[in-house]
Amino acid sequence: MAASLLPPPDPQFVLRGTQSAVHALHFFGGAQGQGRPLLLSGSLSGLVHIWSLQTRRAVATLDGHGGQCVTWLQTLPQGHRLLSQGRDLKLRLWDLAEGRNAIVDSVPLESMGFCRSSVLAGGQERWMLAMPGRGNDEVQILEMPSKTSVCTLKPEADAKPGMPMCLELWQADSSPRPLLLAGYEDGSVALWDVSERKVCSRVACHTEPVMGFDFDSQKARGVSGSAEKALAVWSLDEQQALQVRGTHELTNPGIADVKIRPDRKILATAGWDHRVRVFHWWTMKPLAVLSFHSATVHCVAFATDGLLAAGSGDQRISIWSLYPIRSDASTPSLGHAEGREVGTQTLA
User: Fold this and answer.
1) Rounded Cα–Cα distance for residues 329 and 26 (Å)
2) Cα dist from 62 to 65, 105, 106, whole Å
3) Where are the WD-type repeats located (predicted)?
4) What phi and psi values does residue 152 have, to the nearest 5 degrees?
5) For the whole prediction, is pTM greater than 0.70?
6) Exposed/middle/buried for 193, CB within 10 Å: 0-12, 13-18, 19+?
7) Reduced to 3 states, what is the DSSP secondary structure of residue 33?
8) Which of 41, 139, 185, 244 is the most exposed place for a label (fewest CB within 10 A)?
9) Contact (CB, 8 A) for 205 and 251
10) What is the dihedral of CA 159, 208, 164, 237, to 10 degrees?
11) CA–CA distance, 128 with 302 (Å, rounded to integer)
12) What pLDDT does 98 receive?
């Protein structure tokens, strides 16, 4: 007799109180590394909330973007510092140490696009920042905190990729040279050698703008989503050539964000159809469809302990514990995925 389908899992808990749509999420290690991580959220109203996952309440609210939508949040590894990007054309650097919550620096943006910035940590308090540039198709690279211009990455004359939509700075284990992955308006993903200021490779992944991607540098493999009904999986070979490995068709169009969990076992997508979808990262097998939200899911984020957060236009943040990270690799039942039963599995 066939096993009955299990219902979708429920959130572990829900955070309310942002007062507007949630457009950015980022987990932070927490004060003095004690207890559960803190969660940072950026809202349409321009506020950044710092949430305690123990009390499930906001412990601080940062107001630094003049009421304009916060689109990106990132903490820096050196000290309690936060970068926030807003539609007010400002990148703010916050000092969060000892409850200060103060803006200590600001970088002006020269593009009104939707592109989120990216950072690459260096040594001795220095770090690299990639952000949308002045030109429609440009990416600006700065050395921080000095704000020294490293270079401007502009596509070759015959390439017309449109605006950069998402960025990720990274370094290969085999080389200290900084590299940049950029997703563009024409649906392509390009790999830049920052030092050489040149495109190493470009691949067409989508027919619509790349809305979000994530890259697994250990597997040299990435995944991207767009306005269309498919995820694209692509890889990078030893000659720094990008190639599409396959696509995964979705039930509904529109992916706003994609994140791979830190242990590289699963990934989550934020959908225009109000759903979060969870996939096995290596096989792309659907594992769960999380249908809690009542409006577009704009962003997802994973904590190092495996917690998943999703932020939505319904002004709520859902927190999920799915396939917990365990040393024995065993996993609990999750319910159904895309109409199929999901039982106990091993995420190898």
Assistant:
1) 25
2) 9, 14, 14
3) 203-244, 290-322
4) -120, 125
5) yes
6) middle
7) helix
8) 244
9) no
10) -70
11) 23
12) 83
pLDDT score for 5:
47
The alpha helices in the chain, defined as continuous H runs, are none
Enumerate residue ranges in the chain where pLDDT < 70: 1-7, 30-35, 79, 123-124, 326-348
Place of tokens 């900084």: 178
Amino acid at 178: P
CB 264 within 8 A of CB 280: no
CA distance 244 to 189: 10
Question: Is the Cα torsion angle 172, 167, 47, 255 positive or negative in sign?
Answer: negative
Pick from 294, 238, 290, 242: which is nearest to 266 by CA?
Answer: 290
Check: CB of residue 276 under 8 Å from CB of residue 240: no
- Would you give the distance in Å from CA 278 to the centre of its chain? 14
Residue bearing tokens 């991607």: 213
CA–CA distance, 265 with 268 (Å, rounded to integer): 11
- Position 172 scores a pLDDT of 85
Cβ within 8 Å of residue 215, ≥6 positions away: 168, 170, 181, 221, 222, 260
For the four alpha carbons of 262, 265, 271 and 276, in that order, the dihedral sign comes to negative
In the structure encoding, which two tokens stand for residue 31, read together?
């004060």
Note whether 267 and 222 are within 8 A (CB): no
What pLDDT digit, counting tens, does each position of 264-305 carry? Answer: 999 999 999 999 999 999 999 999 999 999 999 999 999 999
Closest CA to 117 of 96, 95, 144, 98: 144
Per the CB < 8 A criterion, the answer to whether 171 and 215 are in contact is no
